[in-house]
Write a structure and sequence with these properties.
CATH class of the largest domain: Alpha Beta
Helix content: 40-55%
Order of helices and strands: HEHEHEEHEEHHHHHEEHHEEHEEH
CATH superfamily of the largest domain: inorganic pyrophosphatase (n-terminal core)
Mean pLDDT: 95
Largest sheet: 6 strands, parallel
Number of domains: 2
Number of strands: 12
Strand content: 15-25%
Radius of gyration: 19 Å
Number of helices: 13
CATH topology of the largest domain: inorganic pyrophosphatase (n-terminal core)
Low-confidence stretches: none
């Protein structure tokens, strides 16, 4: 069982008071989204809505069709069109990762950060960062601090985030607490079959096409696997941006590879880099050097430049920081 110390309990109490006094709340997940960020946002939002709160959800990313079957994207807001009493960012290490919403969050005088990425600078008025295997577990900890349990819908969102951020309970961030939290969510009614089938075992034809392109463009430098997807590649595959699914996770499966990077173009001269590593490596160091962040075995960064220059910079940074 994870022990929540007095300081965290006091912060959770302050957060509860802030939420109690807020009539309108905006919740943000990070750009280059993942199901943990969305699960944290959707799970917390649904929980607060059940408490009678008016909540809007924001993420500066297009959600791929397979994930959109799990997360109802019609609930997402695109533009901030009103003043909110409170803003909350989840699963986001620094405010820059909010993308086009970063400025609005940074300027707001009533902000909260709930996250599991430790070691980053303060960027909200109240912050709770717990070293758990997923941010969805931080949301669960907050709900439990109120003496409450998530309902079935909230639990399913949170379970989906926990499942995917641990790569089906296979990463080095997993502890006994991770499994205990998974058990709690299932006991609360989480639909683990739905989460697994939609978020893990689902692949569109476009995602399959992207996988083939990634394999065709791969470069192996010693124990480093690097590949890339350009806007033209997405078009050729009939895929939307962010429809690369969990391709990044699979590159590291190749025998003899200890570090992998998938470079994904997001707009002209802007690339999102997804790093993966095997036990014994720390790709978060590489991502940090490139202005990003993450965990030892899974991290990311956004880099400006051409496909060729970004690839060269990534390889240089890997060589110098491992």
């Amino acid at each position: 069982m994870m022990t929540i110390n007095k300081t965290i309990k006091n912060k959770f109490a302050k957060i509860a008071e802030k939420i109690k006094n807020a009539k309108s709340i905006a919740i943000f997940a990070h750009t280059s989204y993942d199901p943990d960020g969305l699960g944290s946002m959707y799970g917390l939002a649904y929980f607060l809505e059940k408490q009678g709160k008016n909540v809007d959800k924001f993420v500066d990313s297009k959600i791929c069709p397979t994930d959109a079957k799990f997360f109802d994207i019609s609930q997402l807001c695109d533009e901030i069109t009103r003043d909110y009493d409170l803003m909350i960012m989840v699963d986001t290490a620094n405010v820059e990762r909010l993308g086009k919403y970063a400025s609005a969050f940074a300027k707001h005088n009533n902000t909260i950060k709930l996250d599991h990425h430790v070691g980053y600078h303060t960027c909200a008025k109240i912050e709770v960062v717990l070293p758990l295997s997923s941010c969805c577990e931080v949301i669960l900890a907050y709900i439990e601090s109120l003496g409450k349990k998530p309902d079935k819908i909230t639990a399913t969102y949170l379970f989906g985030g926990l499942l995917t951020d641990t790569d089906c309970f296979s990463t080095d961030t997993i502890t006994a607490v991770s499994f205990q939290n998974a058990c709690k969510l299932i006991e609360c009614g989480a639909d683990n079959v739905k989460a697994t089938s939609m978020l893990v075992k689902s692949q569109s034809q476009a995602q399959y096409n992207l996988s083939k392109i990634v394999a065709d463009k791969c470069e192996i430098h010693g124990d480093v696997y690097i590949s890339s997807l350009t806007l033209k590649d997405y078009k050729k595959a009939g895929a939307q941006l962010n429809e690369d699914g969990n391709i990044s996770n699979k590159l590291i499966y190749l025998e003899g590879i200890n570090i992998s990077c998938l470079i994904k173009q997001r707009q002209i001269n802007v690339f999102s880099c997804s790093f993966r590593g095997r036990v014994g490596t720390d790709v978060s160091v590489i991502a940090n050097k490139l202005g990003g962040g993450g965990h030892k075995l899974a991290a990311g960064a956004v880099i400006k430049g051409s496909e060729k220059s970004v690839k060269a910079l990534v390889l240089k940074t890997i060589r110098e920081n491992r």
